[in-house]
Write a structure and sequence with these properties.
By secondary structure, chain A is mainly alpha-helical. Chain A has helices spanning 9-37, 58-67, 71-78, 80-113, 119-127, 134-145, 150-157, 171-195, 199-207, 212-240, 244-249, 257-267, 271-302; strands at 40-41, 48-49. By secondary structure, chain B is an alpha+beta fold. Classes of the chains: A mainly alpha, B alpha+beta.
Chain lengths: 304, 393
């Protein structure tokens, strides 16, 4: 019968709730940011022009609209600083996500193969770092990596190096911090898909002549692809916009877009350019989301 | 139950090609030799030995937890025996890895690869065997035709019905032409009607391919329908290995008699021997005359087993039932307590004067039957000495 009849009124309200949330807390603020990105910097309060003021009448509104332009976006494309920031963000996110996948997959695989009663414990161990503030954990890494930090002390004591190595303020330190922080976001979706896989599928593969290695590549891995895609998205997107980790652990000679944004907002007080940079970032990140959506759609279509 | 009993052609094994029989000499295709498997302290399979001939359709039947699935998984290589040998064509394969055995299995849940099409599922084993592409295509087409799945080759398992999935699983396990095909409760997920027709197709397929099938099932009707021989398992041991008819009519033990089909059991003691008959003094049903069994009874404590359909009811006793009644030596008198009309048969429960309950089922051979019995009717139940089996307790 009609699909409507199975939804009671509270159920319908509950179905609307996420959209209300999206409109209030994403679309409306994004509208503000978009508007600011089309404005010009001004030494004023707020620090941009034009300002829509409904009390000034329709003519003023019309001239305010006329004053908006795409100048900030032209600046973003023409200035190396922004282009390089975007590129660096994408590269850092791509490299980090690859490392995360290579490290996270075997961990998730191992967890899924543990005896049933050990799996919740393994899950706890993955989640436990979240119990400490993210910032404190990054500061702890600073402590470990600094000139007279734990790492250098151990390396010196073991005579692996003869002089302290510079770890802090390098890309290695930043990658370490990112991989460390995002590992649970890679492991959990992978674990979820691997754990629900039928063990009889692997038995069937080996029964049909596939060695354990081939069975993995022919059955386990293809079936875990939705988890791989989810893990990649969960890591890649936030890493692109990451600000804290590169700011605290990486050097200052090249910036990620998050850092550039911060500089524009708080140091240069150039809200319009910063807003334009943020809008651009969002557009960039929609691309992988579209891919993911396509992938999911295809799988849903297959199973119908 | 008895009405459904298939007639099994005892000479059937002779119809397998003689060349194969010669090559194997006395060696069966599969010899399970004192195989044991423990899980912790639990003895799943207990020093079990069994021979299975080439071209045979063999069923392992037993209650859940009897070890039949463990035994099957050892044949497939998913479990390794703790002791004993598994000889396939004379070679011990007990330690051979599953992907290196010429044995294939059809899984209970089918275990179809959800990301592969019907075609690729069937071709999976062929590709691993390194077959040429053209050969694979030909074999897949042959298998698809064999299980009547034409036109569905490109579908994914999720787009198939339960019966179609079952066929894909069967085709996939047959594609490599294994020496031995193992079937783990292959029809358990199908509904009753489909299951029954599929059982017959399975038998036909096995005859046509001349392959050796070993099926695990807890459904005795299924085992009797499909199998040439049935091994009944309990607690990791084989209780009896026999044809379906032998299993039902000549159970080797009280446990088998009670597990396979319905049965009335009267415990008693051997009283005397007389003209090829044993007289058994039972607690609940007086003295019962039983035909002398092939295996001599050694212990005095015995029980008499009679299938419900072998017990006839009448109002006044066998004399009124004509010629057959003359041989009806055993008579039990009692009152009908329960009548269940089941269509083909009517099942009665009657209470003897001793208080014991006897079950009888009679075929409804005429559409209009006047001589039926109802609750509280006093009746005579009778059966001949050949109708019952004497078993040690």
């Amino acid at each position: 019968m009609s699909a409507r009849s199975i939804f009671t009124r509270p159920a319908r309200l509950a179905a609307i709730a996420p959209y209300v949330w999206m409109v209030l807390f994403f679309l409306v603020p994004f509208g503000f940011v978009l508007k600011i990105s089309l404005s010009q910097t001004a030494i004023a309060q707020p620090p941009y022009l034009p300002v829509f003021d409904l009390t000034q009448g329709i003519a003023a509104l019309r001239s305010a609209f006329a004053a908006m332009s795409l100048d900030n976006f032209r600046l973003l494309v023409s200035d190396d600083l922004y282009v390089l920031s975007y590129l660096r963000s994408l590269v850092v996110a791509a490299v980090s996500t690859s490392i995360l996948l290579v490290i996270g997959y075997p961990i998730a695989y191992g967890m899924a193969r543990l005896p049933q009663r050990w799996q919740p414990i393994a899950m706890m161990l993955v989640i436990i770092p979240f119990w400490t503030s993210f910032l404190i954990r990054i500061y702890a890494w600073i402590n470990i990596l600094q000139h007279d930090g734990l790492l250098n002390k151990i390396l010196l004591a073991l005579h692996i190096v003869s002089a302290p190595v510079v770890w802090l303020s390098t890309d290695s330190a930043m990658y370490l911090g990112i991989v460390y922080s995002y590992l649970p976001f890679m492991i959990l979706p992978l674990y979820a898909t691997l754990a629900k896989m039928e063990p009889s599928l692997l038995e069937a593969a080996s029964d049909l002549g596939a060695s354990p290695r081939r069975a993995f590549w022919l059955v386990t891995f293809p079936l875990s692809l939705p988890g791989v895609a989810a893990g990649i998205l969960l890591c890649f997107i936030p890493i692109v916009g990451e600000f804290v980790i590169p700011d605290l652990l990486a050097g200052s000679n090249s910036l990620m877009i998050g850092q550039t944004l911060w500089l524009e907002f708080f140091t240069n007080k150039d809200w319009p350019v910063a807003s334009a940079a943020a809008v651009m970032l969002l557009v960039l990140l929609v691309v992988p989301l579209i891919f993911y959506d396509r992938l999911q759609r295809r799988q849903l279509g297959d199973s119908r | 139950m008895a009405e459904d009993l298939p007639i099994i052609d005892a000479d059937k094994e002779l119809s397998t090609p003689p060349a194969e029989a010669d090559a194997a000499a006395d060696m069966p295709l599969l010899r399970i030799d004192a195989v044991g498997k423990k899980f912790g302290m639990f003895r799943a399979v207990d020093r079990l030995s069994l021979d299975i001939r080439a071209g045979e359709f063999f069923a392992l039947l037993g209650p859940s937890g009897c070890g039949k699935t463990t035994l099957l998984r050892m044949l497939a290589g998913f479990e390794t025996p703790d002791e004993g040998r598994i000889l396939l064509d004379g070679k011990d394969i007990a330690q051979v890895l599953p992907h290196q055995r010429p044995v294939n299995m059809m899984f209970q849940n089918y275990a179809l690869f959800p990301h592969l099409s019907v075609r690729d599922n069937i071709a999976f084993g062929l590709k691993r065997a390194g077959m040429a592409r053209a050969e694979i295509n030909a074999r897949v087409a042959e298998m698809v035709a064999l299980v009547k799945l034409e036109g569905l080759e490109k579908r994914k398992p999720d787009q198939l019905s339960g019966g179609q999935k079952q066929r894909v699983a069967l085709a996939r396990s047959l594609a490599r032409r294994p020496r031995l095909l193992l079937l783990d409760e292959p029809l358990a997920a199908l509904d009753k009607k489909l299951r029954e027709s599929t059982q017959l197709e399975l038998v036909e397929l096995q005859r046509r391919l001349g392959m050796t099938f070993v099926i695990v099932t807890h459904d005795q009707e299924e085992a009797m329908t499909v199998a040439d021989r049935i091994g009944v398992m309990d607690a990791g041991r084989l209780e009896q290995v026999a044809t379906p008819r032998q299993l039902y009519e000549e159970p080797a033990s009280r446990w088998v008699a009670e597990f396979v089909g319905d049965v009335n059991i009267f415990e008693g003691q051997l009283e005397s021997r007389d003209a090829g008959r044993l007289m058994i003094a039972t607690k609940d049903a007086g003295t019962i005359a039983v035909a002398e069994p092939r295996q001599p009874v050694t212990k005095p404590k015995v029980c008499v087993a009679i299938r419900p359909e072998k017990i006839k009811l009448s109002r006044r006793g066998p004399a009124s039932d004509g010629a057959a009644g003359a041989h009806a030596i055993n008579r039990l008198e009692g009152v009908v307590t329960d009548v269940s009309y089941l269509g083909g048969v009517t099942s009665y429960k009657m209470k003897l004067d001793s208080g014991a309950v006897v079950r009888s089922s009679m075929a409804n051979t005429a559409r209009i039957d006047r001589d039926t019995y109802q609750a509280s009717h006093r009746v005579v139940a009778w059966f001949t000495p050949d109708d019952c089996v004497v078993l040690e307790q």
